[in-house]
């Protein structure tokens, strides 16, 4: 797998090479994947649901832990 990923705005993110060590299970099995994702965000006192059909986020292949990075956070903020 590559350490370059197209973000939602078409830019390529260069970060440290995969695989990463998982903060939960400590295995070196974190790779960037695309998954459907939804979360809640607060905006002016109101709770809003944010849905992203294909979030590019690092995820542990061993325990499924999501490891949010700046690329994933940027996608969430753009969707928000």
Shape assignment: elongated
Fraction in beta strands: 35-45%
Number of helices: 1
Helix content: 10-25%
Look at the structure and give the mean pLDDT: 87
What do you see in this structure?
There is one protein chain. This protein has 80 residues and is mainly beta. Helices cover 12% and strands 44% of the residues. It has one helix and four strands. The chain has one helix at 70-79; strands spanning 4-6, 12-14, 30-43, 46-60. The protein has a two-stranded antiparallel ribbon. Strands 3-4 form a two-stranded antiparallel sheet. β3 (30-43) and β4 form a beta hairpin. The N and C termini lie far apart (29 Å). Residues 7-12 have low confidence and may be disordered.
Short description:
This protein is 12% helix and 44% strand.
Question: Which descriptors apply to this entry?
Answer:
80 residues, mainly beta, two-stranded antiparallel sheet, 12% helix, 44% strand, elongated
List the helices and strands and how they pair.
Elements: E1 4-6, E2 12-14, E3 30-43, E4 46-60, H1 70-79
Antiparallel strand pairs: 1-2, 3-4
